[in-house]
Amino acid sequence: MQGASVLKVPNGKLVKARVDFVERLERVQITGDFFMHPEEGIANIEQALNGLKANSTSGELEKAIQRAVLLNQMELVGVDAESLARAVQMAVENGRKGNGQNP
Amino acid sequence: MDKTPEWRVIPLEEHDAYLNMALDEACAQSLTDGDANPTIRFYRWKPSAVSIGYFQSMEEEVNVEQCKELGIDLVRRRTGGGAVYHDYEGEVTYSVIAPEQYFPKGITESYHLICGWITNGLKELGLHAEFKPINDITLNGKKISGNAQTRRNGILTQHGTILYDLDVRKMFSVLKVSKEKISDKMIQSVEERVTRILDHKKVSREDVAHALLKGFTQGKFYSFGKWSNAELDDAHVLVSQRYCTKEWNWMR
């Protein structure tokens, strides 16, 4: 299944998430007009989400993102781990709705 | 730490999008290696170009076909932030590239400091603009400047644009917005949110460049400089290996 979402971070920037998933997240892509550096760290965040259960809670996704942020010593501006997690979770929900498979 | 470095100022120059972005990176590398002074540069985009933020999708943000037709270059920046239409006639762009210890540690505070140089420059023109966090400058509540910053290997790079005479209709033809949004109503509403120097003051681009130069260099030791041969060589390599490549520009 595929899903997408768009989320405006309160007092921040726009985050868009695209996910491919079945039982687990298979491919996560996050785009938007936010800032984080080092910029390449976004790939580590996406990688950290791949393989997690598609029905992970927003909190579980946030923990994985937070770990990647710390590990890569990333600084986030206009976005935070919580918003990224919510965008990914919304993308999964939207994907399920689109396929008529509401949990 | 010496807080009063001599700055190198590179006056208004014109390059294509790829070289403009590559020069910023080559300069940062040169500073990392201890081969360059902190640098302030002013430049224009020839031909006009669209730059997108590091995290944006080219396909999602840009009307690629329209850009091809109009001869507008497309480039991904190494900084985050949004898509920008850099009209050759419509704006002045700057970059500040310097060791990060010359700036406040906080990102917002360092945006505030450098954006203060811009507002000082605009003040020279009699325009009273203000910093609007996270990364904008507004004049009478409308955006007149957008800025983007990154830090790497102890070097801060911030670049941004100051709108001089932007063609809003053209901007909308190259940045992707749904068709119904390109109605007069939408353009009107964007014109309500965006403003340009020429809306307020009939000044030449030279006057603007001069005023910005003054704002950026106030209280600094500086001299006019140019790129070293090593920086130019590195920049040309970065153009061919990164900024001109499909892998980079269509990465997301």
What is the overall pLDDT average of chain A?
Answer: 94
Radius of gyration of chain A: 13 Å
CA-atom Rg of chain B in angstroms? 17 Å
- The CATH homologous superfamily of chain A is named CO dehydrogenase flavoprotein, C-terminal domain
Per CATH, the architecture of chain A is 2-Layer Sandwich
Brief rundown of the structure:
With 103 residues, chain A is α+β, with helices and mostly antiparallel strands. Chain A has three helices and five strands. A three-stranded antiparallel sheet of chain A has the order 1-2-3.
Structure overview:
The complex is a heterodimer of chains A (103) and B (252). With 103 residues, chain A is an alpha+beta fold. Chain A has a single domain, classed as 2-Layer Sandwich (Enolase-like, domain 1), CATH 3.30.390. Chain A is 40% helix and 28% strand. In chain A, the strands form two sheets. Chain A has a three-stranded antiparallel sheet with strand order 1-2-3. A two-stranded antiparallel ribbon of chain A has the order 4-5. The longest helix of chain A is centred in the C-terminal third of the chain and has 18 residues, at 81-98. Chain A is globular, with a radius of gyration of 13 Å. Chain B has 252 residues and is α/β, with parallel strands linked by helices. Chain B has a single domain (6-249), classed as Bira Bifunctional Protein, Domain 2 (BirA Bifunctional Protein, domain 2, 2-Layer Sandwich). In chain B, helix 1 packs across helix 9 (229-243) and helix 4 (107-124) packs across helix 8. The longest helix of chain B is centred in the middle third of the chain and has 18 residues, at 107-124. Chain B is globular. The mean pLDDT of chain B is 94. Classes of the chains: A alpha+beta (103), B alpha/beta (252). Chains A and B meet through strand 3 and strand 4 of A and strand 9 of B.
